[in-house]
Design a protein that fits this description.
By secondary structure, the protein is mostly helical. It is built from 10 helices and no strands.
Length: about 260
């Protein structure tokens, strides 16, 4: 069996003006896989000869600025060295299917691909939810009849990042849900997580709405819009007002002892 000479890496240079890939190509991985394809079926002696050819090619490329020290060239030589040592120790011919290093790498690639697929699906779901909330807000239908869901905070952030003019309505809806402990905010853990996932103005709005609800005074639609405006201007002052009202609403001890109950 003749020993194939690793082809010059000059053929793998990007053509001038070629469109850049969305993600950088892992040239080292490309080189290793090319070596494995060429090495399949080789004996130890043939792999050793191919290793010498690869080293010679690397030596010839040392004066080329575009090739000297390239990730692919170094990876190819290293892979030929690994395969030559493997065959010297095990005998037989090279088969990637029985190479533990190759199989581990393929398994890692599969896991990475699955994780990337899941990430893309989650992004699509988030975008769809953001679109849904924006559409409801635009139609005037984003109210207490719409239950909040886990992840709505991220959908709110996406709308804000887009500069969507409807995102303040989504903020008001989330504040109302947080104040009411409705939707996914019925779960105390979700309310705790909201401290880190919602902006201060939304949390302050929710705090003021919650304490205003304790007064028992009926409020017509839109009558409490001032709470959102206060929270947007000064969340800290809004929280202070909510805390003061909360204390003021505590009933006085009927026995007249000056305490509260």
């Amino acid at each position: 069996m003749s020993t194939p000479v690793p082809p010059s890496r000059r053929r793998h240079l990007s053509a001038p003006g070629a469109a850049a890939p969305r993600r950088p190509v892992d040239q080292a991985k490309v080189g290793r896989r090319a070596v494995r394809r060429r090495a399949t079926g080789m004996s130890a002696a043939e792999a050793a000869a191919a290793l010498e050819e690869a080293r010679l090619q690397q030596h010839l490329d040392r004066d080329r600025e575009d090739l000297a020290g390239s990730d692919r060239g170094l990876a190819e030589v290293a892979e030929w060295e690994r395969i030559a040592l493997l065959l010297a120790a095990t005998g037989g011919v090279y088969d990637p299917e029985t190479d533990a290093v190759v199989q581990d790498e393929l398994a890692a690639d599969r896991r990475a691909a699955q994780a990337e697929q899941q990430r893309l699906q989650e992004q699509q779901q988030l975008a769809a939810r953001a679109d849904e909330l924006a559409a409801l807000a635009g139609a005037g239908r984003l109210n207490r009849t719409v239950a909040s869901r886990p992840g709505d905070e991220a959908a709110r952030d996406l709308l804000a990042q887009r500069g969507d003019h409807r995102h303040p309505k989504v903020d008001n809806w989330l504040a109302q849900a947080l104040a009411d402990h409705s939707g996914h905010y019925a779960d105390p853990a979700a309310r705790t997580a909201a401290v880190g996932s919602l902006p201060p103005a939304v949390r302050a709005h929710a705090a003021l709405l919650a304490v205003l609800a304790r007064t028992g005074a009926p409020a017509a639609d839109g009558e409490l819009e001032f709470a959102a405006r206060l929270a947007q201007v000064d969340p800290a002052a809004t929280n202070a007002l909510a805390a003061w009202l909360d204390r003021a609403l505590v009933p006085t001890d009927p026995a007249g002892k000056g305490g509260t109950r």
